[in-house]
Structure formats: C-alpha cells, structure tokens
Amino acid sequence: AQDFLIAPSILSANFARLGEEVDNVLASGADIVHFDVMDNHYVPNLTIGPMVCKALRDHGVTAPIDVHLMVKPVDRMISDFIDAGASYITFHPEASEHIDRSLQLIRDGGCQAGLVFNPATPLAYLDYVMDKIDMVLLMSVNPGFGGQSFISATLDKLKQARRRIDESGRNIRLEVDGGVKVDNIGDIARAGADTFVAGSAIFNARNASDPHGYDSVIASL
Length: 221
Ligand code: DX5
Ligand code: ZN
Prior knowledge:
It is a single chain. The mean pLDDT is 95. With 221 residues, the chain is an alpha/beta fold. Bound molecules: D-xylitol-5-phosphate (DX5) and zinc ion.
C-alpha cells in the first residue's frame, strides 16, 4: 500500500487568520503543513519566517510542518526553524555553500532533511547524500509564487528520482511542489511522487456555502 501525503501550501492561505486556515485544512484531511519561506534574495518574494512557525505550534498545530527554505544563505534559518518546531526542513542546493553540512545540521537538530530541485537543477546533487536525506522535493514550477502552471518535464524527472530512491533502498519521501491540481495529481502519482504540495488548488477552493470547507478538494486530490 502506498502512503500518500497531502501538504497544503499555506502560501495561498489567508494570512490574517492563518491558525484557523491551518486547522481547517488539517480537519479536512490534509496530512502535513507546507511552509514556504522566501527571502527576496534567493527568490523574488518575501513571506514568513520562524516566528510564524512557532506561532502555529503555540496555536496547537501538532501535524508535521514541512519547511521549504527558499533563502540564501540557509544555515542560520535551519537552526531557527529547528527551534521553532519544524518537522521537515528542505533547502535548495544552490543556496548552500556546504550542502552536506546543512543536511547534517538539520538531522542533528532532530528534523527530517531534504533537498529541493528547481525545474532545471540536475538530480546529480543526490549522488553522495542519499544516506543523509529523508525527502527529495522536485519543484514543478520556478520557486517564488503560488498559482503557476505545472512544468510537464517534471513527470520524467519524478520517474528518475523515484528510480534513485528505490535503488537506494532507503525510506525517502518524494515530494512535488507547484501547479498540482485535481486533474494532474494522478499522473504525478504514477510518475512516482508520494507527497503532494498544493497551494492554490486547496485554498482557492473555498465556496460560498462553506467558506472554510476544504474537504471536497482535499478528498479529490
Ligand atoms: C512556490 C512554492 C509552492 C507554492 C505552490 O515557490 O514553493 O509551495 O506555494 O503553490 P501552487 O500549488 O499554487 O502552485
Ligand atoms: Zn514550497
């Protein structure tokens, strides 16, 4: 049996009532909270940091928090997010001077570590670190914004990443981020992903009769 995880990206949530939005998606069946950290340097947008992660923990969120660091440099934010209650911490290899060290920092802090691959970043960064990661995250859009279209070359890249993970024999999650919708998630799963980030697909699905109800879209994903 496959275990699939749905990870709503809170980038598309209503930040004015973030705790409630997170409670709602978790109550509607989401498994983990995808937390996008942008620094207006590594990517051209600015979002949320460790204080907001800590605030969600203090609010009572017990689900895993999947911190996607789009920041450069990364190491300082790794320590801060460990202290703020992160569960997974992933970063882009291009943003770290010492990838092996950054991965080690994450695991030493008791979190699960992962590398994120931009659409044009080669999977070769995995060659010498398969024993040091718990997650591979493939970007299916260029990082920086929600609501972009899925880049179809990611399907072939997912198959290659799936092969590497299976050959390693290790327990490593394969996550996909960007443009995941109800109508393409089947193909994405068949290409080998087991963890699905969805931002706009979930948070734009509020409807008039039940403005907080995300059940139907999460169930269809
Ligand atoms: C983009 C972020 C994504 C984004 C996904 O840089 O990493 O997590 O919020 O949003 P959608 O699902 O709308 O493409
Ligand atoms: Zn993300």
